[in-house]
Design a protein that fits this description.
alpha+beta, Mannose-Binding Protein A, Chain A, nine-stranded mixed beta sheet, two-stranded antiparallel ribbon, about 25% helix
Length: about 230
Amino acid sequence: MAGTLSELRQKLKKNLSVAILGVIFCFAGLSGATAQTKLGPILDKKIFNPENGNYYQLVDVRTSKININLTFSRYGVTWGGASRLANQLKYKNVQGRLVKDNSPELDTFLRQTFRPSTYTWIGIRYKCSDRKLYYIDEEPLTPNSFTFWSPVDWSSDRVHNATGRPSNIEKPVCYGRIKYHGAYMTIGDIDRAPYWALVVDDKVWYAFFVEYPTGETENSQVSLNK
């Protein structure tokens, strides 16, 4: 009988050890999966987009090591400040600019490739001088232009919300010193996916997308460049 009890205790200890190890490996697996889904943004690297032949770069003024003076920008930059910083950058003898985000393919490329983790300036603004939207190269947006506004559609003559119904929100406020409203890309929240929004010209964010419009072919380039 004593032998039987001893064997039973040993068997229970073995089963308990196996169960504990199983729980440990389970939590380790979950932690690994969580770590993989929380990939950080890709900063400073210039990445080629084969769809249009241009290069793109995500800059965060808090951590960037790009070769421009960011000393006075560590607390954020306005849309205008981001535009000036982008213009200081060059790649393959092509001057940088804030990204002209003008297609769903490009917008998806930017989000999925760089994974921005903070509000990020893009090359679109609403000018108070004539109350119209313009790309960074001064080309006006038209009713057929790709946009990704939410919760209101700033492209419409009469502002509409995301459902297409008239909104109580008027056009961007233009008075006093306000000259324009800069466009930025959000990172989404619990209730909705990332989208675009407008904010007054003295607001600061940390990040901005740079575009180098080289117009090169896919065959002559590599996908990732330092």
